[in-house]
Hints:
The chain has 150 residues and is mainly α.
Amino acid sequence: MEGIMRIKQMAEGQKDYVLLEIVKYLISRTDMNEKYSNEEKTLKGMAEYIQGEIIKDFCKKMKTDNPQKYAQNINYGEKNINCLAIGMSEKRTFELAIQYFNKSNEELGIPKKEKKVIKKEKDKFGSIFEDLPKEEEKQEEIEQISLFQM
């Protein structure tokens, strides 16, 4: 179950509830194990793909090419951010996650990104982690992925 282990490793330290629910679903899909081993696929890439599809669906339903006009400025923590509230069913979210891992980036229309030089053995699978901090600092410095950040 190398692919499922890869998904679990990429999810280590993540705190976003929705992302972790998607990860639980992905792990339950043992039939996808081989697909999860694809090094061009990451949880960050999956989140970006799902976000993009959510926006496309919203624009289609609202018959707009400018979703920003529907966004509201809200105070989030210490930041003011533009927020676009869009609902999506759990089923559709899971479908998009599986679609992301089941098809190549080329098939999905995702442009190739320049590969970064990997310096650490722990990071060999192309995870979302840039430079892994020392063990005691690890959880604080993991890039947090969210389906709600744009």
